[in-house]
């Protein structure tokens, strides 16, 4: 009985560690097309296949079109946020090329904790 309890505690610790990692704030700031980050900033095309490290990232194949909604700034400028069909997530800016800029000026705003949660089927996933 004690061994089963020890295994359950270990699984709980591992699960908690994964949860903390998956909600890690990637940057305190981001740039958007408007203060609410609802306006599309640009249309880009994937120049390489990309498979993200967790559910917060957007996976894509070379040639796919992505709409960019925000770009992390200051401490992590390499990650942009965008959508491809129903899928939404972060991706490295060097994996795409800009096809069309859709805004005149970028606005820098603070990120929110919810910016770094997984979104599945229109629901936030709290792990």
What does this structure look like?
Residues 39-101 form the SH3 domain. Keywords: Coiled coil, Endoplasmic reticulum, Glycoprotein, SH3 domain, Signal. It is a single-pass membrane protein. Residues 1-22 form the signal peptide. There is one protein chain. The two termini are 27 Å apart. The strands form two sheets. Strands 1, 2, 3, 4, 5, 6 and 7 form a seven-stranded antiparallel β-sheet that branches. Strands 8-9 form a two-stranded antiparallel sheet. With 127 residues, the chain is of the alpha+beta class. The chain has a domain at 26-104: SH3 Domains (SH3 type barrels), CATH 2.30.30. The longest helix has 21 residues, at 2-22. 17% of the residues lie in helices and 36% in strands. The radius of gyration is 17 Å and the shape is globular.
> What does the average pLDDT come to?
83
How would you classify the helix and strand content by structural class? alpha+beta
The CATH homology group name of the domain at 26-104: SH3 Domains
Major beta-sheet overview: 7 strands, antiparallel
Please report which band the strand proportion falls in: under 5%, 5-15%, 15-25%, 25-35%, 35-45% or over 45%.
35-45%
**Number of helices, where a helix is a run of at least 4 consecutive DSSP H or I residues:** 1
Give the beta-strand count.
9
Shape: globular
At the first level of CATH, the class of the domain at 26-104 is Mainly Beta
CATH topology of the domain at 26-104: SH3 type barrels
Rounded to the nearest angstrom, the distance between the terminal CA atoms is: 27 Å
The unreliable regions are 10-22
Q: What pattern of helices and strands is seen along the backbone?
A: HEEEEEEEEE
């Amino acid at each position: 009985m004690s061994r089963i309890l020890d295994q359950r505690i270990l699984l709980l610790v591992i699960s908690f560690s994964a949860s903390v990692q998956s909600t890690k704030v990637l940057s305190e700031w981001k740039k958007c097309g408007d203060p609410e980050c609802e306006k599309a900033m640009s249309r880009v095309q994937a120049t390489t296949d990309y498979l993200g490290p967790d559910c917060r990232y957007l996976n894509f194949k070379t040639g796919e079109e992505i709409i960019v909604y925000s770009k992390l700034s200051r401490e992590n400028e390499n990650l942009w946020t965008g959508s491809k069909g129903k899928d939404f997530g972060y991706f490295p800016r060097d994996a795409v090329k800009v096809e069309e800029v859709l805004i005149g000026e970028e606005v820098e705003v603070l990120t929110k904790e919810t910016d770094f949660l997984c979104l599945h089927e229109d629901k936030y996933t709290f792990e």
